[in-house]
Specification:
homodimer; alpha+beta; Beta-Lactamase; two-stranded antiparallel ribbon; 45% helix; elongated; DNA-binding; Tscrpt_reg_IclR_C (chains A, B); transcription regulation (chains A, B); HTH_MetabolicPath_Reg (chains A, B); WH_DNA-bd_sf (chains A, B); DNA-binding (chains A, B)
DNA sequence: AATGGATGTTGCACGCAGTGCAACAGACCT
DNA sequence: AGGTCTGTTGCACTGCGTGCAACATCCATT
């Protein structure tokens, strides 16, 4: 691993906490000011940090550009999007699409009944990985060893009384989810919110993404939401089919972005 | 400037174009494979790149996290948000907030009449800097020399017949905008879309952001939209006042994020 | 099976590039 | 003026990043 690059990249999360001046950056990196200066200059040339008028540094615009571009190149998302929109339109609830990456679960698309959002507002914030229905599906598909390792490394915050309390319970839940091929979150994250989720699979059968429908129980009861499960699964299967190239793709009107 | 970091960061825009394998990265950087490998490893440890199952690299999740965090620390945006919502609610059209940074103009917030979006969907994509009303305001406030330099470095794509054709015309437009303290875009980007915009100023009078109201002319005519100008300017001034600390801040119900 | 040509990975010696230092330049305050 | 902050520059040293060559896998040919 490269020391210089490592130091430079460590500056980014540091600045994510808020603007900082040269001295602060140097201190927190444990390097000389002149070193920090050169690193910041390099980051600046690439647009990753910006120097505001009070001379302090903060994260730069190119970061948004990169995040945006990266997102648009996620092909699962591109394929899934029209399906999500259709599902959202027909059931009227919020639909999410999520992927797993290096121990984290990440929402990559969201459709609300009235409005499709390209970038989910919570991207980057820690997803409630121990309770979210999509997270269960994604983790349940990991190889045994990895699944255990991840489960045991997690914290288990008690969002509500129904939150997953610990690694053992989580692993049991994952086993169930793995067998049945779908997952729920009944008030595990927020007391009044329920979700049902289904997996999207690649050609080799591995889970590449997971999608869910969420609704507050003041709108529909948990039972009513569960009644949507077949529809959710059918949608997920349709996406799986198209993603793994089984369907000759009936030109699903690609939206002009 | 640091060579190693420079190379490492050059990988990011490269991967933004799409996934690439080790050889491709090494080639495009002009370095040996082993060098590229170490750089990629370092980027990987920081979560900025992700190695997908086919061993190719693509941009990683941490990037979204950083972009998201950065966005939430933009204090103009935080202060402006409730004002934008109120304006959007009262006039019913789309409201944008934008800032200037290092030669680029960047939307940092958007409110649609029915739905507030945290991260604008076009973030990262090149904003139509030569025609957008907010861009005119932001560029018009730059020091003479810098304004000229930027204007002459730009391309002037003819989106429509009313697009700004060249640097000279743009600079003339900027002078006008600077004098009058507001700006419009009447079909300069898309034939049927009009915008009116007003500047948000800091305590020193410098323009720190710009906001606009946009509407298609099938909904309201350009004249009707222009009638909203006083309201837009009042809103912008209110934000300016609060941003520069003049108002003792009447606790403008901070939304619980 | 055996061969060839892809790829990704490791260890190592060389030398340049990144480092910390010390001195300088401003800004701001007392 | 003096003092104390800040950011910046030039330079000598050596530690770190570099490219090389050898190795390890994999897959497609024969």
């Amino acid at each position: 691993m490269s020391q210089t690059v490592d130091r430079a990249l460590s500056i980014l999360p540091l600045l994510a906490e808020g603007p900082a001046d040269l001295g602060q950056v140097a201190d927190r990196l444990g390097v000389h000011k002149s070193t920090a200066l050169r690193l910041l200059r390099t980051l600046h040339e690439h647009g990753l940090v910006y120097r505001q008028s009070d001379q302090r540094y903060r994260l730069g615009a190119r970061l948004f550009a990169l995040a945006q571009e990266a997102m648009e190149h996620l092909d699962v998302r591109e394929i899934a999007h029209p399906h999500l929109v259709r599902l959202g339109g027909s059931c009227g609830h919020t639909v999410h699409l999520a992927v797993y990456e290096d121990g984290e679960v990440l929402y990559i698309d969201k459709v609300d009944s009235r409005y499709p959002v390209r970038m989910y507002s919570r991207i980057g914030k820690p997803v409630a990985i121990t309770v979210a229905a999509v997270a269960k599906l994604l983790l349940a598909d990991l190889p045994e060893a990895q699944r255990r390792a991840v489960a045991e490394a997690l914290d288990y915050p008690l969002y509500t009384a129904r939150s997953t309390p610990n690694a053992a319970a989580f692993l049991r839940e994952l086993a169930t989810v793995r067998d049945q091929g779908w997952a729920t979150d009944l008030g595990g994250h927020e007391e009044s919110i329920n979700c049902v989720a289904a997996p999207v699979r690649g050609a080799d059968g591995r889970v590449v993404a997971a999608m869910s429908v969420s609704a507050p129980n003041v709108v529909v009861t948990a039972d009513e939401l569960l009644a949507l499960l077949p529809l959710v699964r059918r949608t997920a299967d349709a996406i799986s089919g198209e993603y793994s190239g089984r369907t000759p793709v009936t030109t699903p009107d690609r939206d002009t972005v």
